[in-house]
TrEMBL record:
This is Transposon Tf2-11 polyprotein. It comes from the Eukaryota. The keyword Nucleotidyltransferase applies. PROSITE patterns: CHROMO_2 (PS50013), INTEGRASE (PS50994). The gene is Tf2-11_39. Residues 379-424 form the Chromo domain. PANTHER family: PROTEIN CBG26694, PROTEIN NYNRIN-LIKE. The keyword Protease applies. It comes from Vitis vinifera. GO terms for molecular function: aspartic-type endopeptidase activity; DNA binding; DNA-directed DNA polymerase activity; metal ion binding; RNA-directed DNA polymerase activity. Coiled coil: none annotated. GO terms for biological process: DNA integration; DNA recombination; proteolysis.
Length: 424
């Protein structure tokens, strides 16, 4: 091949970028070039060109193990100190209810199922939580939840703050943080499928007799009922046998209870280490530094501008964006443009390194409209309730507005600075 300008670059582009080729992999691109051309270091140039192809980086699915080793949550030390919460939604109406609040104790794995309205508000969620959980077990120290608006509402957050509890959210689009509740959800849905009627309108009654608490947990070697209560409950098959507790005296009962809790702790720790060992075999360790450029995987259902198009044709990644910092051991805060109104913290499995072309930084930049994202955090101002001037020492006076948001109840109204309202 003659040495003429940037002809090698143009030939690779012709065999990779054009519509009649369609951004193939390295093997096909090399085969097309090899059939007609060759030059020194041809394969190195092909590899470098394809590694920096922004279209391939954004649109192709990685056929590799997910990034980020498993980072188990800290082991709970006693029953109901740390819990997880989640919603099961989209259920048919049963006795006026359309969703289930699932609360799971991370120590004993005991699950509480609370029927709730389809449009359950933040205030109603807090009331049901106090009535069905705090009333019987006390206030937990840690609550791990997803980013449902019922859990992220200011009323809920402020209520827990006043009561001294800490609310931990799952990282954005990464429910494995709250994987325990997700697994209980699967068990509950399976149970309801077994016994629900044809019209599926009697599931609320079935929640009264769900006994998934009786099976022994592999993590604790005890049932989720036995750990907080000290013994298994009487059931029809044990009632006829004249079942008696194993502890004849209160002292032995209390001593045995504490012993069970200690054993459960050791089993939980052993299970966590075992889970991490096996999970890490299917993952790869990756780390980013502040300032690194990455692409972010966004879920198709979050796309506001692409609701009417086929989700299989939606670009897989958006970016590149800059890493702002590390959050915990496996999550990162990413600098996103204001049009992407989503949480800035992502699990590492939703990030991948961006490889830019130093010679042509704009290569592969799409001419189509940028993706916009809608989540439960998108807000729309309904009207302004009141305003106030905030004066702080050493800071110029600033005007704030009490905003009634469109959708949430008035109890969710919040004070917002004037210069921030343009975002909403």
């Amino acid at each position: 091949m003659p040495k003429w300008g940037n002809i090698s670059h143009n030939l690779i582009k012709e065999c990779h970028d054009t519509k009649w080729i369609g951004h193939p992999g390295q093997r096909r691109t090399r085969a097309l070039l090899k059939s007609a051309y060759t030059w020194p270091l041809i394969w190195d140039e092909v590899e470098a060109y394809m590694r920096t192809c922004l279209v391939c980086q954004r649109d192709k699915v990685e056929q590799q193990q997910p990034r980020g080793l498993l980072e188990p949550l800290p082991i709970a030390e006693c029953p109901w100190e740390s819990i997880t919460m989640d919603f099961i939604i989209g259920l048919p109406k049963s006795e006026g209810y359309g969703s289930i609040i699932v609360v799971v104790d991370r120590f004993s794995k005991y699950a509480t199922f609370i029927t709730a309205a389809t449009d359950c508000t933040t205030e109603e969620t807090a009331r049901l939580f106090l009535k069905n959980v705090v009333k019987y077990w006390g206030l937990p120290k840690y609550i791990i939840s997803d980013r449902d608006p019922c859990f992220t509402g200011k009323f809920w957050t402020e209520l827990l703050k006043l009561m001294g509890s800490e609310l931990h959210f799952s990282t954005s689009f990464h429910p494995q943080t709250d994987g325990q509740t997700e697994r209980v959800n699967v068990l509950l849905e399976s149970y309801l499928r077994h016994f629900v009627s044809v019209n599926q309108k009697d599931w609320a009654k079935l929640l009264d007799v769900v006994l998934i608490q009786l099976a022994k947990s592999e993590a604790t070697n005890k049932s989720s009922f036995e750990l907080p209560m000290g013994q298994q409950p009487l059931t029809p098959h044990t009632l006829v046998m004249g079942y008696k507790g194993r502890s004849p005296t209160a002292f032995k009962f209390a001593k045995g209870w504490h012993k069970q809790a200690d054993i459960a702790c050791s089993y939980l720790d052993k299970a966590a280490r075992k889970m991490k060992k096996w999970a890490d075999k299917k993952r790869r360790h990756t780390e980013y530094k502040v300032g690194d450029m990455v692409l972010v995987k966004l879920l198709p259902q979050q796309f506001k501008s692409l609701r009417l198009v086929h989700k299989g044709l939606v670009r897989r990644y958006e970016g590149p964006f800059t890493i702002l910092g590390k959050v915990g051991k496996v999550s990162y805060r990413v600098e996103l443009p204001s049009r992407l109104k989503i949480h800035l913290v992502f699990h590492i499995s939703y990030l991948k390194p961006y490889h830019g072309d130093k010679d042509n930084p704009t290569r592969g930049m799409s001419k189509r409209a940028p993706t916009t994202v809608v989540t439960s955090y998108d807000k729309e101002v309904k009207h302004i309730i009141a305003d106030q001037v905030v004066r702080r020492q050493g800071v110029p006076p600033a005007t704030e507005y009490l905003v009634k948001w469109k959708g949430p109840p008035k109890s969710e109204a919040s004070w917002e600075p004037a210069n921030a309202l343009w975002v909403f």
